[in-house]
Amino acid sequence: MNLLQVWTGKPSSRFFNRYAHSIAAARLSLPHIARQSLPWPTTRFILNLRRICPMTTTTDYRRLKELLRLVSFSSYVIPLTAALLSALCAMGLIGAAAWLIATAALQPPLAALTLGITAVRACGIGRAVFRYFERWLSHRLAFHCYTELQLHLYDIAARLLPLRSGAIAQGSFLQTLTTGCATLRDFYLRCLFPPVTVLLLALAGCAALFPFCPAAASLFLLIPIPHLLLPLIFDRTAPDEKEQSVYRSALLDLAAGQDELRAGGNRPEVLLRLNRQASAFGCCLLARQRRLSRTDFFLQIFDAGFFLFFFLLLCQAVLSGSLSFIGCGVWLMLGTAFLTELRSTAPAMRQWHLTRKALQRMAPLPAPPLPQAEEPPSLSAPLLAVKDLGFSYQPGVPVLQHLSFTIHAGQHTAIVGESGCGKTTLAGLLTAFWAPDSGKILVQGRDTANMTADCIRSFFGSSLQGSFIFPWSIRDCFTRLHPGISEEQIHFFLHLANLDNLIEHLPQGIETPPGENGSHLSGGQRNRLLTALALASQAPILLLDEPTAGLDQKTATIMMNRILLYLDRQKQTLLLITHDPLALSRVQQVIRLR
């Protein structure tokens, strides 16, 4: 493969491809390019130079400032100083060693070499100490910011989940959050400090060499430019996320369904399809590695040219008498050490592409809501009012339309209807999991659109389908949701849910682990535990979604009698979603959804 093939990834006979020129001209809207016989690399350089423009928008700078604001300015200065001192010690070690060898070749007295020997030792020790110090501080900074990002994004996830678009969209959403957090953590470790350190080293080298050779000193400022720009221009494309996602999904599906595929005899076909997807993903990775290799190849050419030109300028300074022979050797080795430090710049610029992509993926996430002045409750208004409510998971497929009802304090209400008519969806709307597409939900006369989700949910003690049960102990389930609850209160609410007999027969009582999401409990026991947890909130409205599902008639009747007696005594309101016809006789209002 010749040099042209290395650059283009194509046979050299296609190097001057006029079809590619016309595409470049169309994309750039510059007709004169199409009329010129520009080689493909030049055209691609112009295209990539145009594509780099969005990176310099104010939006990206604003996002970068938000990242940097996670910690104080001093938290950046200290590790950056340690990184700079470590790099200076590394260059000083090479320079001191070069001075020591060049001076020793002249056979001076041993005392004349004392300074060089001491400098070599000091720089060697300083490089190790400052490098360790910089790594410790930078990792501490990165993981502090990582924690802050996770807390911030998990708060956002808690407000947005569950998504109306379904479980698959939720998985992609959480995958975006977790991978984005890890990428932004690496920004502090791999993207922030290397370019800044290199630029400071370039300024220091230029200032130190300028009195002896201004032309050579200016090279210290010029050589970082290609190391900063080339990766930004040519290494923008990450591995194809679509191909990676397709391959990962297929791999997980195969792992989960191996037994079924083996039993059905379809495993060879699935493996063949998986191999094709793996090959497509591998081609994406290979193409990216080819781009990285090209960039590194040209950076090495730049470095070699810098070294030769730097050497010629130093020789000219020696001939003019402004620099000694020993000084020439020292600065030549310092230039070599500076090139070594430059090697971290290209990976840092590539990491910036990943950081920017993560910021763009997470940009649509809403910011935390600003605190608003709450409207005072209206004593004459109903406890809960729904007016002309409409909602749909998909555009054009309504689940609820023009729904209106009113519930007064102490008025027990049942919501009934066929499966799929929107009963659980209505419960999710009332508890602010989703915002309605149209209409209003009023709590004590206040529009929930002007209330925070936490404020809305404080009015509801809810047990909804799909609620999660913590696995450590029954007591832990209560204390996590209701901090400060006493053991007597836990036993009382378990009694209301008709779980007291079960707790008495458990060896560990309320310290018994219910298992992952209640896996050690039966379906009916799990529903009753969720009902007890909802009762413990003591909110004005108790919202129960199918609380008697999985229960025999006797157990369901005992539980509902206890709950209704307690609610009447506490003057609380029950909102019951049920298919149980016997429960309808115990409520004052029935809302039928169609």
UniProtKB/TrEMBL annotation:
Primary localisation category: membrane
Keywords: ATP-binding, Membrane, Nucleotide-binding, Transmembrane, Transmembrane helix
InterPro entries: AAA+_ATPase, ABC1_TM_dom, ABC1_TM_sf, ABC_transporter-like_ATP-bd, P-loop_NTPase, Type_1_exporter
MF (Gene Ontology): ABC-type transporter activity; ATP binding; ATP hydrolysis activity; ATPase-coupled lipid transmembrane transporter activity
TM spans (from-to): 73-102, 108-130, 187-210, 216-234, 297-314, 320-340
One Pfam family matching this protein: ABC_tran
Residue ranges annotated for the ABC transmembrane type-1 domain, each copy included: 82-325
Lineage: superkingdom: Bacteria
GO cellular component, as recorded: plasma membrane
Compartmental location: Cell membrane
ABC transporter domain residues: 384-594
Database matches in PANTHER family: ATP-BINDING CASSETTE SUB-FAMILY B, TRANSPORT ATP-BINDING PROTEIN CYDC
Record-given protein name: ATP-binding cassette domain-containing protein
Lineage, broadest ranks: Bacteria, Bacillati, Bacillota, Negativicutes, Selenomonadales
